[in-house]
Write a structure and sequence with these properties.
- It is globular and about 60 Å long.
- The chain has 2 domains: about 10-105 and about 225-250, no CATH class; about 110-220, 4-Layer Sandwich (Purple Acid Phosphatase, chain A, domain 2), CATH 3.60.21.
- The protein has 8 helices and 7 strands; from the N terminus they run H-H-H-H-H-E-E-H-E-E-E-E-E-H-H.
- The protein starts with 8 loop residues before the first helix and ends with a helix.
- Strand 1 and strand 2 form a beta hairpin.
- The longest helix is centred in the middle third of the chain and has 17 residues, at about 75-95.
- By secondary structure, it is of the alpha/beta class.
Length: about 250
């Protein structure tokens, strides 16, 4: 799974190339294709060319609906001003076709995997099960994570939005059975915040014989990929945006 590309085409290309060696059954994107690195149309075009199912992130929703401002995270005043200018730039450059595509992306994906001993229900959202603006952090308590999964009948909940990868197997009881449910944040391709500057994606291994009674039955593997960060910095400068994120891009 991939998420939070934020118009970073070099990072997306590096990740898709790296994914090839694992030959996953399917690639899903959990949203935020646009707004930051400058390759907004190119990222959307590549996602569509690869037929990758994608959710609507908060940036996709904002640009899709031609908003001049919407909520986003930033660490200081310079980054806030960068964000405002970036939104204006994307709104000028996005094609009508791609804006319509963003506007019509879904909020939630749900799939059911039929296993030898039980079916496993997997759900995907951008932020949380109720909002693509909600930051569900690793520190979120088990009770709330289980409540979200209960609300949509999911055994596995995959999220993005925070740009920080994490995984937790949570013990609980369901229909008088002791099982483990799994909360996963898949990290960020184009604007990673895990403490290094590598693009991040997530592999989820679910075998036909996997059973929810074993906490390790669902295997989650975070992959970190190098990409030409300096090319992104040059692109941002060429677009007339500030250097507010240069240190972040170089050092994570």
């Amino acid at each position: 799974m991939i998420s939070d590309i934020h118009a970073n085409l070099p990072a997306l290309k590096a990740v898709l190339k790296d994914i090839e060696q694992h030959q996953p059954d399917t690639i899903y994107c959990l949203g935020d294709l646009v707004n930051f690195a400058g390759w907004d149309n190119e990222v959307i075009d590549l996602i569509r060319k690869k037929n990758i199912p994608c959710l609507q992130g908060n940036h996709d929703e904002g640009i899709g609906n031609s908003k001049d401002f919407f909520s986003y995270s930033f660490s200081n005043q310079a980054q806030q001003e960068f964000g405002i200018q970036s939104i204006q730039l994307v709104n000028r450059q996005i094609t009508h076709t791609n804006r319509t595509y963003l506007q019509n992306l879904p909020f939630l994906f749900k799939i059911e995997l039929k296993g030898l001993y039980n079916n496993i229900r997997l759900a995907m959202v951008h932020g949380s099960t109720t909002s693509n603006l909600e930051y569900v952090q690793e520190s979120t308590n088990d009770a709330y994570l289980l409540e979200m999964m209960d609300s949509i009948d999911a055994d596995i909940l995959c999220m993005g939005h925070t740009h920080k990868p994490w995984h937790r197997a949570i013990f609980c009881e369901s229909e008088n059975k002791k099982i483990y449910r799994h909360a996963i944040n898949v990290g960020s391709v184009g604007k990673p915040k895990q403490g290094n500057n590598k693009a991040c994606y997530t592999l989820i291994h679910i075998q036909h014989e996997s059973v929810l009674t074993e906490p390790t039955a669902i295997q989650v593997q975070f992959e970190f990929v190098d990409y030409p960060v300096k090319n992104v910095i040059k692109k941002i400068a060429a677009n007339g945006l500030s250097d507010a994120y240069n240190n972040f891009l170089l050092n994570g």
